[in-house]
Write a structure and sequence with these properties.
alpha+beta; Sufe protein. Chain: A; about 20% strand
Length: about 160
Amino acid sequence: MKKPLIHFLVVLFLTIFISTSICSGQDLKLTEKAVQDTSVMYKDGNYDGKSQAKYIYEPYWGSVHLTLENGLFTEINFVIRDSSLHETFDEKYEKHFEANPEYIQQSRNDWKGVQTYPKKLSEKQNINKIDAISGATWSFNIFRASVNEALKNAK
């Protein structure tokens, strides 16, 4: 008499366990739209961050403005400023390197990064899942450090 009861309870437990696992898998498919950094939940709001990253001996500062809604990045604005020339790093910044073709190309690569990294963060929703564009590591490091500074206030 005890044996059928034990078998019934084992079957019941396995049925509940399997159905819970299947339902959990379906829930994950519904939330594939955006994958938030699961280790930290951020508060909704507007956040600003500034950083030089590891380039503390250069006059460049990254500045980012983030808007979070429902725990997701909905607006991301990023610029790099040259504090010695009081100028924004943009597509015209290469004029400062007229005699150096390598620096001109570097400037173009990093300008592409400045334009691309906010879009990538919007898509990936996690700064740690973004890779640097080849040739644009400088702008990537400044972007990542600026975002991390902004997110310190969003935890």
